[in-house]
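Note to self: user wants both folds in one dump. Writing first protein now.
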Amino acid sequence: MTFDEAITDSDRFAKRHLLLGNGFSIACRADIFHYGSLYAQADFSNVPEVQAVFEALGTQDFEAAIRALENAARILPAYVPHGAVAIAKMQEHAAALKEILVQTIAGNHPNIPPDIADEKFWACRRFLANFLAGPKAGCVFTLNYDLLLYWTLMHGDMPSGEPIPLTKNDGFGNDEDEPDAEYVVWQGETNAHSASIMFLHGALHLFDSGKELLKYTWIRKGIPLVEQAREAIARNAYPLFVAEGTSAQKKSKIRHNAYLYQGFKQLTANLQQGRHCVFIYGHSLAANDDHILVRIGRGHFRKLYVGIYGDPDTEDNQRIMKRAQELAAMRHERWPLEVSFYDAASANVWGGP
């Protein structure tokens, strides 16, 4: 079905929620956010051996390479009793790849919102209004690290059009000890239940200071967020990122961070609502995000709408559709899950060409 048809069909549910994958960012700037683009821009000069890992796997997917290195480091002792040096090097290179991924995203990210046409932001705000405005407004959960969603929420509407009142509470606010600080802080679990935007895997503008989670803002510091992130990374202060290789490793990191775990719990709680529905846009339903996807299979909500980009008969799309049906098959008979697929291109998330 078309996206509009899916939205019409979903009117029978009390709330709509949205889960965003990397296809959301790729649809805006494929030249930057596609793994192939990131790989081409990455600097592997300090760990040149890792390029052989990508080549051996036949991929440019950073998470796949990280997962392979970490798995190999666990397996190697069974075959090479005296391979401690190689094991340590694999673990070191897996950690280095995570940092290279962060550095590459920050280094190639659009500098400021005006680098993206207003028309794209306006189109995206209209898309998000299906989930963050009106009586059906639910939550938007994103697995992306970049700033595109945040920029869209902060962007103004078309001057000649009707304003779009998006709910954009992300759980951050003034530091009660430093209300005039150049950043805002996560308000903690108590004040986070009303949040409608959650970065499930962290993001470029979220930094863990050790005692609290900070959100960098442009309005308080007057310095573009990407520039702030780059300056921090140059000081070896890395943003909150979940770039682990496997789903189990991602889940472990999420459980050890209060903000990430609250987002995970909030997602889970909403998936338990029998009168809600969920849309997925830009996600391949890959196994390395099973810590998220399995919650769909264990949920109580009644309808899942999955975006399919391009020919539905391609191998990748057939795999996505099969995986979605597998999630539905996990359901208890009391809470059956209906799955429909919509044409992702028809959502016009970032407008026309």
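First done. Writing the second protein, which came from a different request thread.
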Amino acid sequence: MLENQTTYSKMIRFLELFQLNDTDEAGTIESVRKGVEFKGTNLWTLIFAIFIASIGLNVNSTAVIIGAMLISPLMGPIVGAGFAVGTNDFDFLKRCLRNLGIATLVSIITSTVYFSITPINEAQSELLARTTPTIFDVLIALFGGATGIIANTRKEKGTAIAGVAIATALMPPLCTAGYGLAQGNWSFFLGAFYLYFINSVFIAIATFIFVRYLNFRKVDWGLYKDKEAKVRIYLIVFALITILPSIYTAWKIVQSSLFKSRANLFISHHFDSPKTKIIEKNIISEGKKKIELTLIGAKISEENLKNIKNKLPQYKLEEAELNILQDLSSPNVESLKYEILSEVYKNTNTTEERQLEQLRKELKILFPELTSFSLTESKEFRSEENKYENFHLFLTHWSKNPQEREKEKLRLFIETRMGFEKVKMMIE
């Protein structure tokens, strides 16, 4: 009997660790009501934060996006809506929803204006990440909202609220929705706005749950008290309707990830060998599933390929079509060679441009009267030797004609600096 009482006491002490004491009800109500208003300072802060977040998405800067989320006041009316439902204050709920609507509209207009005038139209990875919401975003919003309301109800607020603002990511989806409108891309707009919507809904739901758990004072409905149960049912149904599309999206992402993982395992087991090199790999997990490989090295016989294809079901890849390209005379391989050479040429040109830019800076210091120059590679036919000789032609423009000694000094400098064997200089 004594042993049972000791065990029970230990359980009680353990459960007491999870109790939320020191609730500042008056301070929480004041803080929530203050954060709901969107006029003056709050409205201008929101506009500037949207501009900052849009620029961060545009230039793919995570640091800038995080900074915008930290200064954004967008979470105020969302937390206020959950707080209002939790305390049965539906007059306050109307105010929260009205202000949230204004904030959302202003945010989308601001981001649309920015993405309409920016010269960078390409969608960066930070922007693309906000177009496909999943169940994981729902969980982040739910746990983030719970953290936010718990932190908000403490007398010592701490830094949790700032972390919640970053984790739940309300700003980037709105900016991405603005990008979708500016580019006329409705799939971007709808995907991003849906992410913003589910974030908002589940932050509000988490707030509602903890407001009820902490037993905040409710507004008395009087004769309409029986409708409180109906409101809870409506809230649950609304949450389920909101969450279903994100569950489907998450399921598709998980299935795609599993297919790619199995495909890579299959490839490593059957095609990764010292005699064979994979120069191109393409795994298609959407629609008709395919595994496409381009190989060089020892050619795999048709019989061996057939045996390898028969092993696809062992990796749960029976639906996948396996395409192996080994013929080096194939047009696809020629195309691949062209792409590789183009990339090499592009990288070479980029390196040369950097060298010329550095050369320009150095010449500006060493030869200030040299106003412009061009450097080209050329050939000279020498008839007495019956052969061509390579050289670099250095064409220059000067603000004042240089002396012969200065010209020779410049020519030798170019040969040494650029590593050329022969440079001929001309003055225009």
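Dump finished. Worth passing along: Residues 367-427 form one domain.
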